[in-house]
Design brief:
The complex is a heterodimer. Chain A is α/β, with parallel strands linked by helices. Chain A is built from twelve helices and ten strands. In chain A, a hairpin with an 8-residue loop joins strand 1 and strand 2. The longest helix of chain A has 17 residues. Chain A is globular. In chain B, 70% of the residues lie in helices and 2% in strands. In chain B, helix 1 runs parallel beside helix 10 and helix 7 packs across helix 9.
Chain lengths: 292, 276
């Protein structure tokens, strides 16, 4: 499923003078199937408003432009939001705050029961088991526990399982790594890559963490004041000083280091992933710290 | 969900805003008593109450529309009570279909009474910040300290509750979105189904409230909060000439209404006497 937004606009409280706020301003973007797409920008730049359009949590306003997700036309009044939401999974910040059921099993099965009314009990059990093992939890060990008795990291895993259990084709993550310790973060990002390989086709990540974007995203869009000011690969975006200045974002560590080492004539360039950067640096060091 | 205008503070520097919160609460209570004192069908009393609210609104510099907005939240309740009066009142003579003249008067009476009370109450919260309001209530409840009632703690609980309303609204919004993304449906089905659909929202909300309460308690502890004993105030409440004027005006209102009531009562007595 492709996400295509054309001249998408959105204004909060459009009728109240003084309170109305234009959150999206002529947003044009195309997110292809199979991408890990980053959405970056400062707080209040319209990122969250945009991603909440993708599964119809925020509806396209009258005259607000066009938005298509796969075959779903979100400007159509008869759009079937429920089946759309089954195909577009969304995880908010601190997803563990959405847990509510008495057992982990019930909580993970929640989305499944909502989306497919006539699903059999065996199938539910099989799907929950699959989802829990995908996020790295032992089904037999946790299924009857209360989700509130788990550790923070485990809670978040259960919450993710509760989203991916519906087998969405697109997974939207809003600040997925917020509040995790470095180890938890690493494990979580590895989980994301695993998910992308054999579970969901497209992942859309909203994040402030430029290191994460540089490392994992195939492409990204930069939001600023409700507009998209740039779209491209992380390499393209972080090489352009204009964009960085306009959006008020930080450079990822690898980009900043590449910049410094380039000015000293130690390396020529890198694509800003940790692997590529260290490789280039090692080659440079083997050559006595000079460009070959 | 965000436009909860009932009970929102409108900052200004007016005469009413500068009044002592204790006096304002007392005046508001006295005003409500006055509204209730207006006896059946004597709309002149309501006119006096309306005049009082309009006067107070003008002096407080709060826009009229802002005060009227507060009525919007209870309009359903008002209309419902009026309809009950219209259709289920059997007294008096029939004017139209099942509607009687007494029913009509009663409906008008109920509408006037509820509207006037809500207008007065919202004017109090529009001109008094939640903190002042809590301070005012604490001040008024002070005599209860004699029977060891924890007045300060009570006021603190109230101001915390008020402070957390917007936070909880935001939180509810977020949780509803998260559950909607998992296919939860709050808009279809009968009332029982809808009530059941709220469980996935209410439980996380309850849990997050406990978490917030814990965090707030820690934050207060780390700032050495120790209750009423050692606490001093930055803004002391003081009874001034403004409050005296307010009290006099509302006292005038009550006296006027009582007088009107007495006048009407005497009149009807005279009528009865004349008929005899």
């Amino acid at each position: 499923m492709k996400v295509v937004a054309k001249n998408l606009n959105f204004t909060y409280s459009p009728k109240t003078k003084g309170l109305s706020f234009r959150a999206l301003d002529n947003v044009n973007v195309e997110i292809k199937e199979g991408e890990i797409f980053g959405i970056i920008g400062k707080t209040g730049s319209g990122k969250s408003t945009f991603v909440q359009h993708i599964n119809g949590l925020i509806k396209v306003q009258k005259g607000g432009g066009a938005l298509k997700v796969g075959d779903y036309d979100l400007t159509d009044k008869k759009c079937d939001y429920k089946s759309l939401r089954a195909k577009v999974g969304m995880m908010f910040q601190y997803p563990e705050h959405q847990l509510f059921a008495e057992t982990v099993f019930e909580d993970v099965a929640f989305a499944l029961k909502n989306f497919a009314k006539d699903i059999s009990a065996e199938e539910i059990a099989a799907r929950v088991k699959e989802a829990l093992s995908t996020v790295g939890l032992d089904y037999n060990e946790v299924k009857d526990k209360s989700p509130f008795d788990l550790s923070g990291g485990q809670k978040r895993r259960v919450a993710i399982a509760g989203v991916i259990v519906a087998k969405p084709e697109i997974l939207v993550l809003d600040e997925p790594a917020a509040g995790l310790d470095p180890k938890g973060k690493r494990e979580f990002l590895e989980l994301l890559l695993r998910l992308h390989k054999d579970y969901v086709k497209t992942i859309i990540i909203v994040s402030h963490d430029m290191n994460l974007v540089a490392e994992y995203c195939t492409r990204a869009a930069v939001f600023s004041g409700g507009k998209i000011i740039a779209t491209g690969t992380p390499k393209e975006i972080f090489s352009d000083k204009n964009i960085i200045e306009k959006s008020g974002l930080d450079l990822p560590l690898t980009a900043a280091l590449t910049e410094k080492l380039k000015s000293k004539g130690i390396i020529t360039d890198s694509d800003f992933t940790v692997e590529d950067f260290t490789e280039k640096l090692i080659v440079a060091l083997k050559n006595g710290g000079k460009i070959r | 969900m965000r436009d909860v205008s009932f009970g929102s503070y409108f900052p200004s520097n007016s005469f009413v805003h500068k009044m002592d919160a204790r006096a304002k609460i007392l005046i508001a209570i006295a005003y409500m008593v006055a509204v209730f004192l207006v006896s059946a069908f004597h709309f002149l009393g309501f006119a006096a109450c309306l005049l009082f609210v309009i006067l107070a609104t003008v002096v407080s510099k709060v826009p009229f529309l802002r005060v009227l907005k507060s009525v919007r939240t209870i309009i359903f309740f008002v209309v419902f009570s009026a309809i009950l009066q219209l259709f289920f009142n059997k007294k008096g003579t029939v004017v139209f279909w099942v509607i009687t003249d007494v029913g009509l008067l009663n409906a008008g009476f109920i509408i006037a009474r509820i509207m006037l009370i809500v207008l007065g109450a919202s004017l109090l919260t529009l001109t008094t910040s939640p903190v002042e309001l809590a301070d005012g209530i604490e001040g008024l409840l002070c005599p209860l300290k004699w029977i060891k009632f924890p007045v300060h703690e009570f006021a603190l609980i109230m101001s915390i509750a008020l402070r957390f309303i917007p936070t909880l609204i935001d939180e509810t919004d977020r949780i509803i979105k998260a559950q909607k993304a998992r296919g939860a449906d709050f808009e279809s089905g009968n009332i029982f189904k809808r009530a059941k659909a709220l469980i996935p929202v209410l439980i996380p909300l309850l849990i997050s409230s406990f978490r917030r309460a814990d965090e707030l308690a820690d934050a207060m502890d780390s700032r050495c909060y120790a209750g009423s004993k050692t606490r001093t105030r930055y803004k002391k409440l003081r009874f001034t000439f403004r409050d005296l004027i307010g009290v006099l005006v509302v006292a005038g209102l009550i006296v006027g209404i009582v007088y009107l009531n007495g006048f009407y009562a005497l009149n009807s007595l005279a009528e009865i006497a004349g008929a005899l």
